[in-house]
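Bumping with the actual sequence this time:
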Amino acid sequence: MRTPSLDQLDYSILRRLQRDARTIAESIAAEVGMSTAAVQRRIKRLRETGVIRREVAVLNPKALGLAMTFIVEVEMERERSDVHDAFRYQMDADENVQQCYYVTGAYDFILIVTARDMEDFEEFTQRTFFDNPNVRRFSTSIVMRPIKVGLTLPLSAQA
């Protein structure tokens, strides 16, 4: 899928949708100086071309009993694509894994993991790392307090 060229109006629409994806096209149209139909067409194009990947509700983990967040660095045993692919698929399917990054450096993957408590995290480590012969080692940092958590991208300098 080819990313379309974006103009200032597209970026204005995206900035507004990043703040609140439930914003109706009429409000965006008034804000950016376009017709509602034109805004709707642009949003449709942004979705179809993959610029807008998903629209989701951002939940409060603590309100749902997921009080702990962990940053986990994982080194794989082998530098083989099938081993890395299998681990990526496993992380994508695991509800506790909020984010997974394939990285350069001393480790192969960085994970952001949520859990109810230490026992829940211990169960996660058992099934994910100790039961996986392709994991050489992992290192965990416990998040004491999140300072900034977000999914918005910096669009202010664009177009």
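The tokens above came from a reply further down the thread. The mean pLDDT is 93.
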